[in-house]
Write a structure and sequence with these properties.
This protein is α/β, with parallel strands linked by helices. It is built from 11 helices and 15 strands. The protein folds into 2 domains: about 5-135, Rossmann fold, CATH 3.40.50; about 160-385, 4-Layer Sandwich (Phosphatase 2c, domain 1), CATH 3.60.40. Helix 3 runs parallel beside helix 4 (about 65-75) and helix 7 crosses helix 8 (about 235-245).
């Protein structure tokens, strides 16, 4: 599209001069000239032609001079509009004032049209740069809006109603939370009823951050839930999920997963740990015991792997607490990690608390330790207590 240039000058011969000198660019559709004879006419023309991007304005004009016009243009707050001021060579005081007030450049009379042409080209370069930045800003704003919606969707797919199984509220307490480091995260948790006696529960941590991790998180969560709800063992579920994830692997992404099936009547937990942090068992007396480190690898990276089941017995009053490495690897302003020892010390005081209270205390302790340090990873905690 043609660059629109508004010439504002009370000397009529300037119109003929400009149209003659720039006739080739006008014919090619590169430039389009508009003409006004004072500041008031120029403002009226700008109202009708808001796409004018270069204003070539004389300083000394009747009714409204160029400096006043420049003030009015500044009030429009259009960074892509560039003003080139024109005045007599000896009028350096006004020219200096115009430059201080935001004029892009100036030309002196009699106008050197070759020099003016270069000035206009320089202004067009700046205008194109501003447009590019505005476009990028709009894209970023659009992306920001999309991320906000994605964050809402991600939080919506995670269980948020507690207690989730009111029919068994006298047998177990369960709660969880996920706090992403960015707008969207790669951690997730889930729990679902398999049958009258068994409840599945999951915590997982996807490699990477941001949008790719969030998409992989949604796929992994849906796949594990859809497979687990059929009632097979945790090992069967993770083996099948690993197969599908590995077949469709992009950029070598993977996920660490702890998937357990809790028997409401007996307190037995059958679980499969695919490279995830070992959970803790909190005993009523304050003892904190870590489960063995997983012998199974991460899920989604290598096809054909076979995963294995493990068994533990949860006694009455005991809690199993699962977490992602965003808890233990949280750092403070001196880059010191929160660590497993601090987490164990915190958990030792929480055995008699509800699952929701446990999670709130853990998150508060991590936040207090980190202080002003930026959160570098998603923080997810899940707790299940046998009542």
């Amino acid at each position: 599209m043609a660059v629109k240039i508004l010439s504002v000058d009370d000397e009529m011969d300037l119109e003929l001069l400009l149209t003659q000198y720039f006739r080739r660019k006008i014919r090619k559709g590169e430039y389009e000239f508009l003409f006004a004879h004072n500041g008031l006419e120029a403002l009226a023309m700008l109202m009708k032609n808001p796409d004018v991007e270069i204003i070539l304005s004389d300083i000394n004009m009747p009714e409204m001079d160029g400096l006043t016009l420049l003030t009015k243009i500044n009030e429009m707050r259009n960074p892509a509009m560039k003003c080139i001021m024109v005045s007599a060579y000896g009028d350096m005081g006004n020219i200096r004032q115009a430059m201080n007030n935001g004029a892009f450049d100036f030309a002196t009379k009699p106008i050197d049209l070759d020099d003016l042409s270069l000035t206009i080209e320089k202004a067009i370069e700046q205008i194109n740069y501003v447009h590019a930045m505005q476009k990028e800003h709009q894209q970023l704003e659009s992306l920001k809006g999309d991320l906000a919606v994605a964050s809402e969707i991600q939080q919506a797919i995670l269980p948020r109603v507690f207690p989730p199984f009111p029919e068994d509220a006298d047998k177990l307490d369960i709660a969880a939370s996920m706090n992403p480091a960015k707008d969207v995260g790669g951690d997730f948790y889930d729990f679902f009823r398999i049958d009258d006696e068994r409840i599945g529960f999951v915590i997982a941590d996807v490699s990477g951050k941001g949008i790719p991790a969030a998409i992989y998180m949604a796929v992994s969560r849906t796949l594990i839930r859809a497979t687990g709800i059929k009632g097979g063992s945790p090992a069967e579920c993770i083996t099948y999920s690993n197969k599908l994830l590995a077949e469709e692997s992009v950029d070598c992404m993977f996920v660490t997963v702890f998937y357990g099936i809790y028997n409401v009547k007996t307190g037995e937990i059958v679980y499969c740990n695919a490279g995830h942090n070992p959970p803790y068992i909190l005993k009523p007396g304050g003892e904190v015991v870590s489960l063995p480190i997983s012998k199974d690898p991460i899920a989604g990276a290598i096809n054909g792997l076979v995963f294995h089941d493990e068994h533990i017995q949860l006694q009455k009053g005991e809690t199993i607490l699962l977490f992602t490495d965003g808890v233990t690897e949280a750092v403070n302003t001196t880059f010191e990690e929160f660590g497993n020892k601090r987490l164990e010390e915190t958990l030792a005081e929480l055995s008699l608390h509800s699952c929701k209270e446990m999670i709130e205390v853990v998150r508060a302790d991590v936040a207090s330790f980190a202080g002003d340090a930026e959160q570098s990873d998603d923080i997810t905690v899940l707790a299940l207590k046998r009542l």
